Amino acid sequence: MIPTSFQPPVRTLMGPGPADVHPRVLSALARPTIGHLDPRFVAMMEEIKDLLRTAFRTENALTMPVSAPGSAGMETCFVNLVEPGDTVIVCVNGVFGGRMCENVTRAGGKLVRVDSPWGRAVDPNRLEDALKQHPEARIVAFVQAETSTGASSDTGQLVGLAHRYDCLTIVDAVTALGGSPLEVDGWGVDAVYAGSQKCLSCTPGLAPISLNERAVAKIKARETPVQSWFLDLNLVLGYWTSDGGNRRSYHHTAPVNALYGLHEALLMLTEEGLEKAWARHQQHHIALRDGLEALGLELVVPADERLPQLNAVSIPGGVDDASVRRLLLERYNLEIGAGLGDFAGKVWRIGLMGFSSRAENILLCISALGAILNELGQRVDTTAALAQAQQALSQ
């Protein structure tokens, strides 16, 4: 068989990411490629940094996108801030907290793992106990928006605790940025990373980060080289920082067109307004919740700890997880996510991120799930569920 141009199907993406990409972003990606040291491109880089500062709610000078997925944003923070022998406390309440632990050990740090139940926010009491037991700790890391469970943790409280014990903080905001309140300066977050493919309505492949002066000072005071050449911020900043004459030192060839897309996505977020974007995600979460509950489905995370943009839904007894997701994809071109780790086979993860957080997507999801569940003998009232969702959307 002779290969031909790839033509992807048109899907509605309501899983844990990527989310639907806004047409304006897709259009931006198709603009002419220019050199990554072109003066016009350099000017756009400065605009991206300013737009990211708005999205993160920060004035941090070191705010930029890493030229790689969100996982590389995570690794950037850890390999730059963790030196061999540093004691690092990691709060784990899902898969991505576990990945933080991997980064600590690979960077040569001494890991102190603090577990909270899956589907719950990070427990600040457990963190404080660990801080008391480990006065030598230098860093506390946790996930604000745990994508594997749909749980949201109180970032301001956890950062405040860490600072009380003289620790820097690393926060995973991959699913939070653009969809949930995130106040980097207001909460005093020292280092934060995110992803382009979720609530920013952009394509995968870029990882916005922001580090404050406390974090930068630790990097500059390192006694050992950063273990990753590509992610060494001492080198990357030479490319992302102007010398006053718009000159940049060569580090790598930036993903030019992908950055066009991120610029457009951040511009749209600014046009909508951060608070309005947060409110949209919350309203759509309520509508989806009401519709799902009318179908007899339950969300696993307690109401005051839920992420609006990632909903973990218990799979009814006797219903096969993979079969439902396959039918949604084949019949409705609708993607929802499977459970990970402890939640594998137990939950569906339904995302409402960025451009995917739209009324028509919510109604499609409820209608399609209702039809399939009825076919599988669950006897659900799809009409009533749609009415509940529409009522929430109209408020």
Query: Strand arrangement, largest sheet?
Result: 2-10-9-8-5-3-4
Could you tell me the CATH topology label of the largest domain.
Answer: Aspartate Aminotransferase, domain 2
Q: Please write the CATH class name of the largest domain.
A: Alpha Beta
Provide the domain count: 2
> From the coordinates shown, what is the CATH architecture of the largest domain?
3-Layer(aba) Sandwich
Number of helices: 14
Helix content: 40-55%
Q: What do we call the CATH homologous superfamily of the largest domain?
A: Type I PLP-dependent aspartate aminotransferase-like (Major domain)
Largest beta-sheet details: 7 strands, mixed
Q: How large a portion of the residues is in β-strands, by DSSP E? A: 5-15%
Detailed description of the structure:
This protein has a 7-stranded mixed sheet with strand order 2-10-9-8-5-3-4, with helices on both faces. Strands 11-14-13 form a 3-stranded antiparallel sheet, with helices on one face. It has a two-stranded parallel ribbon with strand order 1-12. It has 395 residues and is an alpha/beta fold. The protein has 14 helices and 14 strands. The model has no long low-confidence stretch (mean pLDDT 96). The chain starts with 11 loop residues before the first strand and ends with a helix. 43% of the residues lie in helices and 14% in strands. It has 2 domains: 248 residues, Type I PLP-dependent aspartate aminotransferase-like (Major domain) (Aspartate Aminotransferase, domain 2), CATH 3.40.640; 122 residues, Aspartate Aminotransferase, domain 1, CATH 3.90.1150.10.
